[in-house]
Structure formats: C-alpha cells, structure tokens
Amino acid sequence: MTTSVTPLRIGLVGTGPWARNTQAPALAAHPGAVLSGVWGRRAEAAGELAAAHGTEAYTGDAGLDELFATSDAVAFALPPDVQAPLAARAAAAGCHLLMDKPVATTVEGARQVAEAAEQARVASIVFCTLRFAPETAAWITEQHAAGGWFTAHAEWIGALWAPGADSEYAASPWRHEKGGLWDVGPHALSVLIPVLGDVTSLTAARGPADTHHLVLRHTSGASSTVTLTLAAPAAAAGVGIALRGDHGVVGLPRWDGAVGAFRAAVDALIESVRTGEAHPCDVRFGLRLTELLAEAEAQAGA
Fold first, then answer.
1. Per-residue CA distances from 217 to 197, 222, 300 (Å)
2. What is the pLDDT of residues 118-140, one digit of tens each?
3. In which band, very low, low, confident or very high, does the pLDDT at 302 lie, cut at 50, 70 and 90?
4. pLDDT tens digits, residue range 19-31?
5. CA distance 67 to 171
6. For the residues 94-104, what does the mean pLDDT come to?
C-alpha cells in the first residue's frame, strides 16, 4: 500500500536573473513541490516568468498577500534588505521560508526575520549553495566528522566587473554597494562554521577595491583566514577552501551548478516542515552570518 504525499505549494517572490535561472526552474520541476505563483514588482516580468512555468502571476501589495494565502512556503529572490521584511511578513502569514543569502545586511533586519519565524513556528532554510550542492554538502559532513583541523583558508575571488565580464549579476545595485563581503562571504562562512565551529573572535581589514580579509578563531580551537572580493582582475579570479590538520591538507571539491543545489534546499525545507526539526542552515544561522559580516564591515571601515 502506498501513501501519497501532498506537494508543498511554494510561491516565488522575485523575477530577476536568480529567480529565472535557478529558483523557478528548480521549483517547477521538483516532484515534492508545486510552484504556486510568482510575484514581482513589475507586472510584466512576473507575468513572463509565471507563464514560462505554468503558474499564476501576482504584483502589488495585495498580490503579495494573495500569493501568501495560496502558498505553504515562499522562496525569495530579492536583494537582502528587500527580502528581510517581506520574509517576516510571509512568516506572520504562516508561510515557511526559503531565503537567499544573506538574509539581510543589518543585524536588526535579520533578527526580525528570525523572531518572526520563531513566533509563527514556521520552518526555514537559507540557501547557501555549498551547504546544499551534493558534492560540497557531503564534503562538509565528512570533514566535520573527521575533526582534528588546525587551520583553514578560504578565498572567494570574483571578477564580476572586470572588462569583458558578462554576468547578469554585475548590474545588481546591492552587490555594487555591499561588495564581496556580503555577496560571497556567506558562502565561505557556511563551510567553515559547520566544520570548525562557531566564530569566537573576528578581525577584519580592507584590501584593494571591495576586498576584505578576515581572521577567525573557532570554538574547536582552529583558526581560519578568508579573502573575499568581487572586483579582482579576471586573471586573478578563483574559489578555494583548504583545511589543514591531523589528516593533512584537504580541499573543497568542485560542484555542479546552482539548480541542483537549490533543489536540495527545497528537499531540506520539505523535510523540516514534515518533521518539525530545524535545519542547521535555517534563518537563525542566517542571523549569525549577518552578525559576523556586520562586525567585519564595522571593523574594516570604508
């Protein structure tokens, strides 16, 4: 005898490149979810994305409430400080949350979302790609279990605005304002913290352009260093995380795109809704990331 499981109705808030390229395709194809609608600030963009995936389009303030009313959960593809208050509103409406990183760029904004989710008792996931991509998620679990790490170094060096670069995300106003610290910093921290433990002390300094250098101490006793930028020359770009300890030197493996990782994040949300158990990469973890990045920003200055 088989038991059918009702798919989770997930609405999508946002219509930009991230929504078009990653979230909408993953949600529309997920066997355990139904894309219940798309909301956008521009009605035309919402209509086009909704039509491409066979769902309803919503716009305006009233449309947002309508989407919440027809959804069990809401996925967000918005700038962080637009995302945060809308996510708190979704939680208050009883919707589970699938948020993008960072959840906000102010501690107050992130805390409001975390408190709203806790008060409403809704499940939450913060989509940090490396925590959900199968290759890197398995690696993180393995290295946490291995333990014995002495130090680590993470570098996320992007060339988003280099001559000849053609990324759709280069025009993002919030990335221009906040830079690599806030855009790719969550990725690095989302790997280091589950392996080495929470951060007990942090020192930050500025480098060229938007570059930030962080020195961290973790609850395990290990230390780590992090270099973050979106403004490097194209020839200097690269991503890597290396752990050093009792087991030698171990590097982060390559991963295959964001759509599969987002699909795994949807799996995690469905499981958290089903069991009532919080996921390690939930909105409370998102708040912790915001606390650390805000401290680094304050230390490093302009």
1. 9, 6, 17
2. 999 999 999 999 999 999 999 99
3. low
4. 999 999 999 999 9
5. 28
6. 98
Comparing C-alpha atoms, which of 13, 73, 72, 10 is closest to residue 39?
13
Band (pLDDT 50/70/90 cuts) for residue 3 is very low
The span from the CA of 301 to the CA of 200, in Å, is 21
Residues 235-242 have a mean pLDDT of: 97
What is the C-alpha separation between 131 and 226, in angstroms, rounded? 17
**Strand ranges of the sheet holding 33-39, from the earlier edge strand across to the other edge:** 57-58, 33-39, 8-13, 73-76, 96-100, 124-127
Between the alpha carbon of residue 87 and those of residues 97, 101, 142, 195, 276, the distances in Å are 7, 13, 32, 28, 19
List Cα–Cα distances, 7 to 28, 132, 298, in angstroms.
Answer: 12, 20, 43
Q: Read off the pTM.
A: 0.96
Q: How far apart are CA 222 and CA 197, in angstroms?
A: 9
What Rg, from alpha-carbon coordinates, does the chain have? 19
Query: Residue type at 2?
Result: T
- Torsion angle in degrees (nearest 10) through CA of 135, 136, 137, 139: 90
Half-sphere exposure (Cβ direction) of 100: Cα atoms closer than 13 Å: 22
| Alpha-carbon separation of residue 177 from 105, 115, 157, 202, 208 (angstroms) | 11, 27, 17, 22, 15
Quick check: bond before 102 cis, omega within 30? yes
Residues 103, 78 contacting (CB under 8 angstroms): no
Q: What is residue 235's DSSP assignment?
A: G
Average per-residue pLDDT in the chain?
96
Q: Which of 136, 182, 141, 142 is nearest to 158 (CA)?
A: 182
Q: What is the mean pLDDT of residues 143-167?
A: 95
State the Cα–Cα distance between residues 205 and 185, nearest whole angstrom.
Answer: 14
